[in-house]
Amino acid sequence: TYRPCNCKPGATAHDDVDRNGCTYCSCLSNSVTTRAPVTDRPTTQGTTTKDTSDLDNMFATIKNRPVFETLTAAIRAAGLRDTVRTTDDITLFAPNDRAFAALPEGTVENLLCEENQDALQELLLNHVVSPALFAEDLVDMDSVESISGNELTLEVEGDTLFVNGAEVIRADKAVSNGVFHKIDQVLVPEGFVVPSCGGDTTEEPESSTEEESSTEEPTEDATEEPTEDATTEEPLPNLFKNIKDRPVFETLKIALKAADLKKTLKNTEGITVFAPNDKAFNALPAGALDALLCPENQDALQELLLTHVVAEELSAEDLKETSSVENLAGTDLTIRTRGDQLYVNDASVLSTDRESSNGRFHKIDAVIIPRGFVIPAGCGDEATTTEAPATTRATTRATTTEAPTTR
Questions:
Q1: Cβ atoms within 10 Å of 85's Cβ, excluding its own
Q2: 109-121 burial, b for 16+ CB within 10 Å, e for fewer?
Q3: At 311, is the secondary structure helix, strand, or coil?
Q4: Could you tell me which residues come within 8 angstroms of residue 339 by beta carbon, excluding any fewer than 6 positions away?
Q5: Of 39, 357, 404, nearest to 222 (Cα)?
Q6: Which DSSP category does 391 fall into?
Q7: Which of 40, 93, 166, 368 has the fewest CB atoms lying closer than 10 Å?
Protein backbone atom coordinates (compact mmCIF):
# COMPACT_ATOMS: atom_id res chain seq x y z
CA THR A 1 0.00 0.00 0.00
CA TYR A 2 1.07 3.59 -0.56
CA ARG A 3 -0.47 6.97 0.18
CA PRO A 4 0.66 10.40 -0.97
CA CYS A 5 2.33 12.81 1.43
CA ASN A 6 1.15 16.29 2.39
CA CYS A 7 4.25 17.39 4.25
CA LYS A 8 4.45 20.72 6.04
CA PRO A 9 6.88 23.37 4.77
CA GLY A 10 10.44 22.51 5.77
CA ALA A 11 9.88 18.76 5.43
CA THR A 12 10.32 16.25 2.65
CA ALA A 13 8.44 13.07 1.71
CA HIS A 14 10.04 9.66 2.13
CA ASP A 15 8.95 6.04 2.30
CA ASP A 16 8.77 3.85 5.39
CA VAL A 17 7.97 0.14 5.67
CA ASP A 18 5.55 -1.22 8.25
CA ARG A 19 5.70 -4.60 10.01
CA ASN A 20 3.84 -6.31 7.13
CA GLY A 21 6.28 -5.08 4.52
CA CYS A 22 3.89 -2.48 3.13
CA THR A 23 5.33 0.82 1.91
CA TYR A 24 3.75 4.06 3.08
CA CYS A 25 4.64 7.73 3.02
CA SER A 26 6.04 9.77 5.90
CA CYS A 27 7.47 13.23 6.32
CA LEU A 28 11.04 13.93 7.39
CA SER A 29 12.21 17.24 8.80
CA ASN A 30 14.73 19.05 6.65
CA SER A 31 16.07 21.01 9.60
CA VAL A 32 19.44 19.23 9.44
CA THR A 33 19.85 19.33 5.69
CA THR A 34 18.73 22.91 5.17
CA ARG A 35 20.62 24.52 8.03
CA ALA A 36 24.18 25.71 7.57
CA PRO A 37 26.79 24.15 9.88
CA VAL A 38 26.91 25.99 13.17
CA THR A 39 30.09 26.94 15.01
CA ASP A 40 30.42 27.83 18.70
CA ARG A 41 27.10 26.17 19.45
CA PRO A 42 25.71 26.52 22.99
CA THR A 43 25.28 23.46 25.17
CA THR A 44 21.95 24.49 26.69
CA GLN A 45 19.06 22.22 25.81
CA GLY A 46 16.47 24.46 24.16
CA THR A 47 13.56 22.35 22.88
CA THR A 48 11.08 22.45 20.05
CA THR A 49 7.43 21.85 20.95
CA LYS A 50 5.38 19.64 18.62
CA ASP A 51 1.87 18.20 18.99
CA THR A 52 2.25 14.44 19.51
CA SER A 53 -1.01 13.69 21.33
CA ASP A 54 -2.43 11.45 18.58
CA LEU A 55 0.73 9.35 18.02
CA ASP A 56 1.75 5.90 19.30
CA ASN A 57 4.22 5.67 22.17
CA MET A 58 7.95 5.19 21.63
CA PHE A 59 8.05 1.43 22.23
CA ALA A 60 5.03 0.65 20.04
CA THR A 61 6.44 2.70 17.17
CA ILE A 62 9.89 1.10 17.30
CA LYS A 63 8.46 -2.40 17.72
CA ASN A 64 6.46 -2.08 14.49
CA ARG A 65 9.48 -1.14 12.36
CA PRO A 66 11.41 -4.11 10.91
CA VAL A 67 14.77 -2.30 11.07
CA PHE A 68 14.58 -2.26 14.89
CA GLU A 69 14.03 -5.98 15.61
CA THR A 70 17.21 -6.25 17.71
CA LEU A 71 16.58 -2.99 19.56
CA THR A 72 13.05 -4.15 20.41
CA ALA A 73 14.33 -7.46 21.79
CA ALA A 74 17.05 -5.67 23.76
CA ILE A 75 14.61 -3.19 25.31
CA ARG A 76 12.44 -6.09 26.38
CA ALA A 77 15.37 -8.13 27.77
CA ALA A 78 16.63 -5.09 29.71
CA GLY A 79 13.27 -4.59 31.39
CA LEU A 80 12.99 -1.12 29.83
CA ARG A 81 9.78 -1.55 27.85
CA ASP A 82 7.72 0.49 30.31
CA THR A 83 10.45 3.13 30.49
CA VAL A 84 10.44 3.62 26.73
CA ARG A 85 6.67 3.34 26.55
CA THR A 86 5.52 5.63 29.36
CA THR A 87 8.31 8.10 30.23
CA ASP A 88 7.32 11.50 28.86
CA ASP A 89 9.48 14.00 26.98
CA ILE A 90 12.44 11.82 26.01
CA THR A 91 14.78 11.44 23.04
CA LEU A 92 16.02 8.06 21.86
CA PHE A 93 18.95 7.58 19.51
CA ALA A 94 17.82 4.27 18.00
CA PRO A 95 20.44 1.92 16.47
CA ASN A 96 19.12 -0.12 13.57
CA ASP A 97 19.67 -3.87 13.17
CA ARG A 98 22.81 -3.36 11.07
CA ALA A 99 24.31 -1.32 13.92
CA PHE A 100 23.86 -4.22 16.35
CA ALA A 101 25.11 -6.71 13.75
CA ALA A 102 28.35 -4.70 13.51
CA LEU A 103 29.20 -5.31 17.18
CA PRO A 104 31.88 -7.93 17.85
CA GLU A 105 30.75 -11.53 17.52
CA GLY A 106 28.77 -12.75 20.53
CA THR A 107 28.21 -9.28 22.02
CA VAL A 108 24.45 -9.11 21.42
CA GLU A 109 23.93 -12.68 22.58
CA ASN A 110 25.85 -12.05 25.81
CA LEU A 111 23.97 -8.83 26.51
CA LEU A 112 20.63 -10.61 26.06
CA CYS A 113 21.46 -13.17 28.78
CA GLU A 114 19.18 -12.72 31.77
CA GLU A 115 22.10 -12.42 34.19
CA ASN A 116 23.50 -9.48 32.19
CA GLN A 117 20.39 -7.32 32.39
CA ASP A 118 22.15 -4.55 34.34
CA ALA A 119 24.84 -4.17 31.68
CA LEU A 120 22.22 -4.13 28.92
CA GLN A 121 20.25 -1.46 30.78
CA GLU A 122 23.37 0.69 31.08
CA LEU A 123 24.10 0.37 27.37
CA LEU A 124 20.56 1.15 26.22
CA LEU A 125 20.07 4.09 28.61
CA ASN A 126 23.17 5.62 27.06
CA HIS A 127 20.94 6.20 24.02
CA VAL A 128 18.18 8.03 25.94
CA VAL A 129 18.13 11.77 26.68
CA SER A 130 15.63 13.99 28.46
CA PRO A 131 13.95 16.19 27.24
CA ALA A 132 12.66 15.49 23.71
CA LEU A 133 15.10 17.07 21.26
CA PHE A 134 14.40 17.41 17.55
CA ALA A 135 17.11 17.83 14.93
CA GLU A 136 16.70 21.61 14.92
CA ASP A 137 17.49 21.56 18.66
CA LEU A 138 20.44 19.20 18.35
CA VAL A 139 22.28 21.13 15.66
CA ASP A 140 22.52 24.10 18.04
CA MET A 141 24.17 22.04 20.78
CA ASP A 142 27.66 20.69 21.43
CA SER A 143 26.60 17.82 23.68
CA VAL A 144 23.76 16.25 25.65
CA GLU A 145 23.76 14.06 28.76
CA SER A 146 22.22 10.61 28.50
CA ILE A 147 20.04 9.13 31.26
CA SER A 148 22.97 6.85 32.15
CA GLY A 149 25.00 9.98 33.00
CA ASN A 150 27.37 9.98 30.03
CA GLU A 151 28.01 12.93 27.76
CA LEU A 152 27.12 12.45 24.09
CA THR A 153 28.93 14.78 21.71
CA LEU A 154 27.04 16.35 18.81
CA GLU A 155 28.62 17.42 15.54
CA VAL A 156 27.33 18.65 12.20
CA GLU A 157 29.43 17.91 9.12
CA GLY A 158 27.97 19.39 5.98
CA ASP A 159 24.39 18.14 5.91
CA THR A 160 24.90 15.29 8.39
CA LEU A 161 24.37 15.17 12.16
CA PHE A 162 26.53 12.84 14.27
CA VAL A 163 26.08 11.63 17.86
CA ASN A 164 29.30 10.29 19.39
CA GLY A 165 30.45 9.50 15.85
CA ALA A 166 27.23 7.68 14.90
CA GLU A 167 25.46 9.12 11.89
CA VAL A 168 21.83 10.14 12.26
CA ILE A 169 20.35 8.31 9.27
CA ARG A 170 16.81 9.59 9.77
CA ALA A 171 15.74 12.30 12.20
CA ASP A 172 12.63 13.51 13.98
CA LYS A 173 10.29 10.53 14.25
CA ALA A 174 7.82 12.03 16.70
CA VAL A 175 5.93 9.77 19.12
CA SER A 176 3.43 10.43 21.88
CA ASN A 177 6.10 10.65 24.58
CA GLY A 178 9.03 12.16 22.69
CA VAL A 179 11.07 11.67 19.54
CA PHE A 180 13.61 9.19 18.19
CA HIS A 181 16.37 9.42 15.61
CA LYS A 182 17.66 6.36 13.72
CA ILE A 183 21.46 5.96 13.94
CA ASP A 184 23.96 3.62 12.28
CA GLN A 185 26.05 2.63 15.34
CA VAL A 186 25.49 1.44 18.89
CA LEU A 187 26.66 4.12 21.33
CA VAL A 188 29.02 2.13 23.56
CA PRO A 189 30.28 4.12 26.57
CA GLU A 190 34.03 4.37 27.06
CA GLY A 191 35.29 1.49 29.20
CA PHE A 192 31.99 -0.41 28.97
CA VAL A 193 32.48 -4.10 29.79
CA VAL A 194 30.38 -6.78 28.10
CA PRO A 195 29.79 -9.74 30.43
CA SER A 196 29.65 -13.14 28.78
CA CYS A 197 26.91 -15.63 29.60
CA GLY A 198 28.61 -17.29 32.53
CA GLY A 199 30.52 -14.46 34.14
CA ASP A 200 33.63 -13.62 32.08
CA THR A 201 33.95 -10.03 30.86
CA THR A 202 35.53 -8.35 27.90
CA GLU A 203 36.04 -4.66 27.30
CA GLU A 204 34.02 -3.29 24.41
CA PRO A 205 35.43 -0.87 21.81
CA GLU A 206 33.89 2.60 21.87
CA SER A 207 32.19 2.25 18.49
CA SER A 208 31.40 -0.30 15.83
CA THR A 209 30.75 0.65 12.24
CA GLU A 210 28.52 -1.01 9.68
CA GLU A 211 31.55 -1.74 7.51
CA GLU A 212 32.74 -4.21 10.13
CA SER A 213 29.54 -6.22 9.74
CA SER A 214 30.33 -6.96 6.11
CA THR A 215 33.47 -8.88 7.06
CA GLU A 216 32.82 -12.60 7.13
CA GLU A 217 33.27 -14.05 10.60
CA PRO A 218 35.32 -17.21 11.14
CA THR A 219 33.34 -20.28 12.02
CA GLU A 220 32.95 -21.05 15.71
CA ASP A 221 34.41 -24.53 15.27
CA ALA A 222 37.61 -23.38 13.56
CA THR A 223 40.70 -23.91 15.72
CA GLU A 224 43.46 -23.91 13.10
CA GLU A 225 44.51 -21.66 10.26
CA PRO A 226 43.48 -23.04 6.84
CA THR A 227 46.22 -24.95 5.07
CA GLU A 228 47.73 -23.84 1.80
CA ASP A 229 46.39 -26.93 0.05
CA ALA A 230 43.82 -25.54 -2.38
CA THR A 231 41.89 -28.81 -2.35
CA THR A 232 41.18 -28.63 1.40
CA GLU A 233 37.58 -27.57 2.06
CA GLU A 234 36.73 -25.33 4.99
CA PRO A 235 34.59 -27.08 7.62
CA LEU A 236 30.88 -26.31 7.51
CA PRO A 237 29.49 -24.13 10.32
CA ASN A 238 27.03 -25.65 12.75
CA LEU A 239 23.33 -24.97 12.35
CA PHE A 240 23.14 -22.17 14.90
CA LYS A 241 26.17 -20.42 13.42
CA ASN A 242 24.80 -20.83 9.91
CA ILE A 243 21.46 -19.29 10.87
CA LYS A 244 23.00 -16.58 13.06
CA ASP A 245 25.13 -15.22 10.23
CA ARG A 246 22.17 -14.65 7.89
CA PRO A 247 20.35 -11.30 8.29
CA VAL A 248 16.93 -12.74 7.32
CA PHE A 249 16.99 -14.89 10.49
CA GLU A 250 17.66 -12.14 13.06
CA THR A 251 14.41 -12.85 14.95
CA LEU A 252 14.92 -16.62 14.86
CA LYS A 253 18.42 -16.17 16.29
CA ILE A 254 17.10 -14.05 19.16
CA ALA A 255 14.29 -16.52 19.83
CA LEU A 256 16.67 -19.51 19.91
CA LYS A 257 18.81 -17.69 22.45
CA ALA A 258 15.81 -16.72 24.59
CA ALA A 259 14.53 -20.32 24.50
CA ASP A 260 17.95 -21.66 25.57
CA LEU A 261 18.16 -23.76 22.39
CA LYS A 262 21.46 -22.44 21.07
CA LYS A 263 23.40 -25.52 22.20
CA THR A 264 20.72 -27.80 20.78
CA LEU A 265 21.26 -26.37 17.30
CA LYS A 266 25.04 -26.23 17.73
CA ASN A 267 25.65 -29.72 19.02
CA THR A 268 22.78 -32.08 18.10
CA GLU A 269 23.82 -34.23 15.15
CA GLY A 270 21.73 -35.16 12.14
CA ILE A 271 18.82 -32.72 12.45
CA THR A 272 16.69 -30.66 10.07
CA VAL A 273 15.41 -27.18 10.87
CA PHE A 274 12.54 -25.46 9.09
CA ALA A 275 13.69 -21.87 9.63
CA PRO A 276 11.09 -19.04 9.54
CA ASN A 277 12.50 -15.78 8.20
CA ASP A 278 11.95 -12.39 9.83
CA LYS A 279 8.87 -11.68 7.71
CA ALA A 280 7.28 -14.85 9.08
CA PHE A 281 7.76 -13.70 12.69
CA ASN A 282 6.49 -10.22 11.81
CA ALA A 283 3.25 -11.80 10.61
CA LEU A 284 2.47 -13.27 14.06
CA PRO A 285 -0.44 -11.67 15.94
CA ALA A 286 0.37 -8.30 17.50
CA GLY A 287 2.29 -8.73 20.76
CA ALA A 288 2.86 -12.47 20.31
CA LEU A 289 6.61 -12.27 19.74
CA ASP A 290 7.17 -9.86 22.62
CA ALA A 291 5.27 -12.18 24.95
CA LEU A 292 7.14 -15.30 23.80
CA LEU A 293 10.50 -13.61 24.44
CA CYS A 294 9.65 -12.92 28.10
CA PRO A 295 11.79 -15.12 30.41
CA GLU A 296 8.72 -16.52 32.18
CA ASN A 297 7.39 -17.82 28.84
CA GLN A 298 10.52 -19.77 27.91
CA ASP A 299 8.74 -23.15 27.99
CA ALA A 300 6.15 -22.00 25.46
CA LEU A 301 8.86 -20.56 23.21
CA GLN A 302 10.83 -23.83 23.39
CA GLU A 303 7.74 -25.81 22.38
CA LEU A 304 7.10 -23.51 19.43
CA LEU A 305 10.68 -23.60 18.15
CA LEU A 306 11.11 -27.36 18.58
CA THR A 307 8.05 -27.76 16.35
CA HIS A 308 10.40 -26.63 13.56
CA VAL A 309 13.13 -29.23 14.28
CA VAL A 310 13.21 -32.85 13.07
CA ALA A 311 15.61 -35.48 14.47
CA GLU A 312 16.74 -36.62 11.03
CA GLU A 313 18.68 -34.86 8.30
CA LEU A 314 16.24 -34.54 5.41
CA SER A 315 17.00 -33.00 2.02
CA ALA A 316 14.34 -31.48 -0.22
CA GLU A 317 14.32 -34.69 -2.26
CA ASP A 318 13.77 -36.72 0.92
CA LEU A 319 10.87 -34.49 1.93
CA LYS A 320 9.17 -34.80 -1.45
CA GLU A 321 9.05 -38.56 -0.96
CA THR A 322 7.23 -38.43 2.40
CA SER A 323 3.86 -37.15 3.57
CA SER A 324 4.76 -36.30 7.18
CA VAL A 325 7.62 -36.10 9.67
CA GLU A 326 7.67 -35.99 13.46
CA ASN A 327 9.29 -32.96 15.10
CA LEU A 328 11.14 -32.71 18.42
CA ALA A 329 8.01 -31.30 20.05
CA GLY A 330 6.33 -34.66 19.42
CA THR A 331 3.83 -33.55 16.78
CA ASP A 332 3.57 -34.39 13.08
CA LEU A 333 4.34 -31.96 10.27
CA THR A 334 2.47 -32.48 7.00
CA ILE A 335 4.69 -32.46 3.90
CA ARG A 336 3.19 -31.86 0.46
CA THR A 337 4.11 -30.51 -2.94
CA ARG A 338 2.19 -28.51 -5.52
CA GLY A 339 4.05 -28.40 -8.80
CA ASP A 340 7.62 -27.46 -7.88
CA GLN A 341 6.60 -25.85 -4.59
CA LEU A 342 7.24 -27.69 -1.32
CA TYR A 343 5.09 -27.01 1.76
CA VAL A 344 5.53 -27.90 5.45
CA ASN A 345 2.09 -27.70 7.04
CA ASP A 346 0.95 -24.55 5.21
CA ALA A 347 4.35 -22.82 5.16
CA SER A 348 6.03 -22.44 1.77
CA VAL A 349 9.66 -23.58 1.58
CA LEU A 350 11.47 -20.60 0.05
CA SER A 351 14.93 -22.15 -0.27
CA THR A 352 16.24 -25.59 0.57
CA ASP A 353 19.20 -27.69 1.61
CA ARG A 354 21.45 -25.22 3.41
CA GLU A 355 24.00 -27.71 4.71
CA SER A 356 25.68 -27.41 8.11
CA SER A 357 28.14 -29.52 10.07
CA ASN A 358 25.35 -31.18 12.08
CA GLY A 359 22.40 -31.12 9.68
CA ARG A 360 20.65 -28.79 7.27
CA PHE A 361 17.92 -26.17 7.24
CA HIS A 362 15.21 -25.02 4.84
CA LYS A 363 13.94 -21.42 4.87
CA ILE A 364 10.14 -21.07 5.23
CA ASP A 365 7.75 -18.12 5.05
CA ALA A 366 5.52 -18.83 8.06
CA VAL A 367 5.95 -19.75 11.71
CA ILE A 368 4.58 -23.28 12.21
CA ILE A 369 2.20 -23.11 15.16
CA PRO A 370 0.90 -26.44 16.52
CA ARG A 371 -2.85 -26.85 16.69
CA GLY A 372 -4.07 -25.75 20.12
CA PHE A 373 -0.83 -23.94 20.97
CA VAL A 374 -1.45 -21.12 23.44
CA ILE A 375 0.51 -17.91 22.94
CA PRO A 376 1.06 -16.06 26.22
CA ALA A 377 -0.02 -12.43 25.84
CA GLY A 378 2.15 -10.04 27.81
CA CYS A 379 4.62 -10.51 30.62
CA GLY A 380 4.22 -10.77 34.36
CA ASP A 381 1.02 -9.21 35.65
CA GLU A 382 -0.09 -8.40 32.09
CA ALA A 383 0.00 -12.05 31.03
CA THR A 384 -3.10 -13.65 29.55
CA THR A 385 -3.28 -16.46 27.03
CA THR A 386 -4.89 -16.81 23.62
CA GLU A 387 -5.11 -19.86 21.39
CA ALA A 388 -3.17 -19.32 18.18
CA PRO A 389 -4.37 -20.43 14.75
CA ALA A 390 -2.76 -23.62 13.49
CA THR A 391 -0.81 -21.60 10.95
CA THR A 392 0.34 -18.00 10.91
CA ARG A 393 1.29 -16.91 7.43
CA ALA A 394 2.92 -13.82 5.96
CA THR A 395 0.25 -11.73 4.22
CA THR A 396 2.38 -11.03 1.14
CA ARG A 397 3.22 -14.62 0.21
CA ALA A 398 1.16 -14.62 -2.99
CA THR A 399 3.51 -12.05 -4.50
CA THR A 400 6.78 -13.38 -3.11
CA THR A 401 9.85 -13.10 -5.31
CA GLU A 402 12.16 -15.26 -3.23
CA ALA A 403 14.11 -18.11 -4.78
CA PRO A 404 12.36 -21.35 -5.82
CA THR A 405 12.85 -24.46 -3.74
CA THR A 406 15.41 -26.04 -6.05
CA ARG A 407 19.02 -24.95 -5.70
A1: 19
A2: bbbbbeebbebbb
A3: coil
A4: none
A5: 357
A6: E
A7: 40
Helix (H) or strand (E) holding 94: strand 90-95
Strand, helix or coil for residue 336: strand
C-alpha triplet 400, 405, 407: angle, nearest 5°:
120
pLDDT of residue 15: 53
Say which residues have a Cβ less than 8 Å from residue 229's Cβ, sequence separation at least 6.
none
Distances (CA, A) of 55 to 37, 135, 174, 308: 31, 19, 8, 38
Question: Which residues, including other chains, have CB under 8 Å from residue 261's CB and lie 6 or more apart?
Answer: 302, 305, 306
Neighbours of 389 (CB within 10 A): 12
- Beta strand 341-344 with 309-310 is unpaired
- Asked if the model's pLDDT at residue 69 lies above 50, the reply is yes
Name the phi and psi angles at 377, rounded to 5.
Answer: -110, 110
Is the Cβ–Cβ distance between 178 and 129 less than 8 Å?
A: no
Amino acid at 278: D
Work out the pLDDT band at 380, boundaries 50, 70, 90. Answer: low
Distance of CA 137 to the CA centre of its chain: 29
Give Cβ neighbours of residue 367 (< 8 Å, ≥ 6 apart): 276, 280, 281, 283, 284, 304, 347, 392
Residue 226 has pLDDT above 90, yes or no: no
**For 22-27, what is the mean pLDDT?**
47
Query: Per residue in 377-388, is it b (16+ CB within 10 Å) or e — as a string?
Result: bebeeeeeeeeb
Contact 205, 187 (CB under 8 A): no
Residue 400 has pLDDT above 70, yes or no: no
